[in-house]
Write the structure tokens for this entry.
Amino acid sequence: MKNFCEKNIYPSQASVTSGMRQTFLRQTPHCFWFTGFSGAGKSTLANTIEEKLFFNGRLTCILDGDNIRSGLCRDLSFSPEDRTENIRRVAETARLLMNTGIICLAAFVSPMRRDREAVRSIVGQTHFSEIYVRCPLRVCERRDVKGNYKKARSGEILDYTGVSAQYEEPLNPALILDTDCMSIKECVYKAFQFVWKRTEPIG
């Protein structure tokens, strides 16, 4: 079946190009990938930055782990294989959105480097920025916003990143935000300056 699909699928070419959309929206599409432990502050930062972008005239979309898993990827488990497939689907979604000129802010634990590099390959090297929302595990556990660390420690949740599953730190992230020692205001300011510069219209 896979070979049949590969041989019989012919992607269509839209007459309205990505460049035309960028000119219309007056922005450059980009995928900003926020990675880090659960509780590090990825979603909080992505949401706050999106708000600032919106009120400054940028068209954006947030792709968030829990939201994606409640719809597009609700059929997937948290096994290593399904985690990889989850990230692949998100990357393809981001690519489609970016083709329409939209700026994507993706907040995912995405613990494996190979999965994050796969995202970079799918959306394109020049339109991808890995942002490491860095926070010590002990601090994330103390916050335990969703109560999942406690469940993971008691065995209610298996394969939980930082407890029973590993997290591979980014080797060369485009930006690091240390949320244990920087205030939200400081992190947002630093991230917004970074994001704004990369979404300015070309030419």
About this structure: The longest strand covers residues 128-134. The beta strands are 31-35, 60-64, 103-107, 128-134, 175-178.
